[in-house]
Design brief:
alpha/beta, 14 helices, ATP binding, Rossmann fold, AAA+ ATPase domain-containing protein, nucleotide-binding, ATP hydrolysis activity, 14 strands, ATPase_AAA_CS
């Protein structure tokens, strides 16, 4: 059709020659029917063509239906794509222009409704398949962070009682932070643990030993907890999904967040589906995120509350109590009722960490600046494979970091300068401070000079 629209759309990648032919046909004034033909250019120009069209190689030229015209998309079924713009008010002021896009179907066939529903269903399934294919082909790793808003766990728009589930925003992860530029005491032990876990060797090869990994990172601020998380994700080739307990209201929401493995991302129509082996779950600053993780003052049960004074209240039979509870359940909003009775608690958190539901291949990392505040049940063996203290840097690790970022080996005099400055200072140095010095100065001597000034202040 001469009125057809042509756009570059992201779709399954075709051959480079076909892409070039489609692009040439789309921009030429030739008949539209030549769009799918092969280019007649010789193979001598293929290298130049590959470079020129490399940026759009993942795109295809696709025909879209003409605007505001009825077209027959199936025998007896017609479709119109129309755009309705608001009328001009004549007022001379800056306004935001909006338009409404309508997709209309019509048919006079006896089974018109079923036919149209089937077309829409096929189109939506095809769209979902394309989105899933794009996710599979996307080799990037992402950082998923919980959004302030929630979405519903059902596709029924009329279901007002749908339980809200966690929604995410995502950002691309880089490959810069690795174990090569991390310097801490138990680095080799952590690498060995990760190798055993990834290869199912060592204790993870023993039948019956849980194939899941739980780490607790603790230490002062700036000692590399977040950097270690990035390095672990890069080493295992996984995405990072943050779980903020402060944004989760119920035990069911927490259960869904860690076991559903479907992540509703803002801006995407379909949730991203992943496996446990694709993700590192992170609960950062867990002692600040929620009070449920704090150590309990005593082991008293939640049921040991002050007895209620019933001296002035009429005695209710069991039948009366049952009727009363049924009436309340009917009158109250089901969503609020469920959220109040399933409020997030320590028991719910322990259940997702070490409950009856299997989660083979899962990695969970918790971080805290104050491990002494945590409930002992949260960090007992079985729930946490390794507790790792990330503390201040020793002189050897400072030397290793300076050599790495300056790409130079310290000579004897430089090592002596570093050691003397380190010994004279009463201050402890964090990896963040030393990394900042390396970023501010260009060579070893300049970094050592900055370190000597920093040490002399204390």
């Amino acid at each position: 059709s001469k009125n057809a629209q042509y756009e570059l759309l992201e779709k399954t990648k075709k051959s480079k020659k076909t892409t070039k032919a489609l692009l040439d046909a789309a921009v030429s004034e030739s008949n539209c029917s030549t769009t799918g033909s092969e280019s007649s250019d010789g193979d001598d120009d293929d290298d130049d063509d590959d470079e020129y069209y490399g940026e759009v190689n993942r795109l295809n030229v696709e025909a879209l239906p003409p605007l505001n015209e009825w077209i027959e998309i199936e025998s007896g079924v017609y479709f119109k794509h129309e755009t309705v713009a608001p009328g001009n008010t004549g007022e001379k002021k800056v306004t935001i222009k909006e338009s409404t896009v309508n997709f209309r179907f019509k048919s006079s066939l006896p089974d018109a409704s079923k036919r149209i529903d089937a077309i829409i269903d096929r189109a939506f399934k095809n769209y979902q398949a394309i989105e899933r294919r794009k996710h599979v082909e996307d080799k990037s790793r992402y950082f998923y962070i919980q959004a302030d808003t929630a979405t519903a766990n059902t596709g029924d728009d009329n279901n007002n009682n749908a339980t809200p589930v966690v929604a995410y925003k995502r950002y691309a992860l880089g490959e810069e932070k690795t174990f090569e530029n991390l310097f801490f005491e138990e680095k080799e032990q952590v690498l060995q643990l990760l190798d055993n876990f990834e290869n199912r060797s060592g204790k993870f090869a023993v039948k019956g030993f849980p194939y899941k990994l739980g780490l607790l990172l603790h230490g002062p601020p700036g000692t590399g907890k977040t950097s270690l998380i990035k390095a672990i994700a890069q080493y295992t080739k996984r995405h990072v999904v943050t779980i903020s307990l402060g944004k989760i209201k119920t035990n069911q929401q927490l259960l869904d967040a860690l076991f559903d493995m479907k992540f509703a991302v803002q801006g995407l129509d379909s949730p991203i589906e992943m496996d446990f082996e694709d993700v590192v779950f992170v609960m950062e600053d867990i002692d600040c995120a929620s009070s449920i993780v704090n150590a309990r003052a005593d082991e008293a049960s939640d049921f040991s509350s002050k007895p209620e004074d019933t001296s002035d209240k009429p005695v209710q039979s069991e039948d009366d109590k049952l009727v009363t509870s049924m009436i309340k359940a009917c009158l109250e909003d089901e969503k609020k009722y469920n959220m109040r009775n399933d409020k997030l608690n320590l028991s719910g958190l322990l259940n997702v960490l070490d409950g009856v539901i299997d989660c083979p291949g899962r990695i969970i990392i918790m971080t805290t600046n104050h491990p002494e505040k945590l409930d002992p049940a949260l960090v007992r063996p079985g729930r946490v494979n390794k507790k790792l203290l990330l503390s201040y840097m020793g002189c050897t690790h400072i030397q290793q970091m300076v050599e790495y970022y300056c790409v130079a080996k310290l000579d004897e005099s430089q090592v002596r300068r570093l050691s003397e400055a380190f010994d004279m200072s009463s201050q402890a140095f964090t990896p963040a401070e030393i990394e900042e010095l390396c970023a501010e100065h260009d060579d070893v001597d300049a970094v050592l000079g900055g370190f000597e000034k920093l040490a002399a202040k204390h």
